[in-house]
Amino acid sequence: MSAQPLKGYRILDLSRILAGPWCSQQLADLGAEVIKIERPGEGDDTRRWGPPWLPESKEAAYYLAANRGKQSVTIDIAQAQGQALIHELVKQCDVVLENFKVGGLKKYHLDYDSLKAIKSDIIYCSITGFGQDGPYAHRAGYDFMIQGLGGLMSLTGQPDTELGGGPVKVGVAITDIFTGMYAANAIMAALLQKSRTCEGAYIDLALLDVQVGVLANQALNYLTSHQVPQRLGNAHPNIVPYQAFPTSDGFIILAVGNDAQFKRFCEVAKCDNWIDDPRFKTNALRVENRQILVELIKREMLKQTTDTWLAELEVVGVPCGPINTLDRVFADPQVQHRHLKITLPHPVDGQVDLVSNPIRFNHEALNAKLPPPLLGEHTSQVLQDLLGLSDLELAEFKEAKIIA
């Protein structure tokens, strides 16, 4: 694979669950060497977060989603000799990534100050629920809780006045994923800075900070108007019509982003009278008269099937789409054309299906070639290659249960 922009960089990954592993998987896909440190006999919690599982290795699908491209090394960091091994590995690495509670690694001498004393230019990225300071810094943070605390769930779900109304979390751990991507972005910025200054960096990332940061237009809606945004179901707070509508046999998403698109939609729907209706002539007017227009559109959309609407609206360039289940997603011709499902060889199960990294770099997809590793699969190899340990030393460490 020629497109490996981070080739030559080495990441020591002490993280687990999702935010940290998502970050290090991104770095692995970009070409970095990632050494995933795991607890002997236990490993990343997500290895057991199933079903579903791979049939032979019994690795959970959750774990498989975030650990492509890594080498698994099992070291007991609670033992002094295990800490010494980590210290030696740090000398061979550019980045340390961790998501322990604030201060959680200090007692193991694996905190930033301890490792900076060993390698002065180390880039150290800490991911926590609430950051390294503040009144909540000591608390554990989980995606679901942060979606609520950080405001996302107040914006997601049907209004209280409608059947099934109430706050709803996003269907994937989106705050963890965003945090992982921000972490990867920050690490790459730190590597770029290091190439100019020869200095390392300390990166403090908090799930709550990220959740507030990605409230995007909704945050600015509030800060600009001082009006608290309410849940709108599938509707958009600033654009109308921009939501899901029932058809005669299902649903369709209608995403009319400007007045020209609205005009073309009206023509397809044979509702030309809406075009010059003073209530609907501009997007601002359509937002103001949302309820009236949405009810009119609902009646029209029920007259034809989803496929009919999709075909007719696509011809005139009105953005629209179906609401696919995942089987239909991976059967979609565009998804298949872009090779968004990939298959890698697996040492126990023969092969494993994964989702491709969406980045195309010089016309190539960026996907690490290593499958998600078995627990401790690379312990001996990494410790021999990087630290020069002998077979006898490895055997002694295993006997002492420092490695497995």
TrEMBL record:
InterPro entries: CoA-transferase_III_domain (IPR050483), CoA-Trfase_fam_III (IPR003673), CoA-Trfase_III_dom3_sf (IPR044855), CoA-Trfase_III_dom_1_sf (IPR023606). It holds the Pfam family CoA_transf_3. It comes from Nitrincola tibetensis. Keywords: Transferase. GO terms for molecular function: CoA-transferase activity. This is CoA transferase.
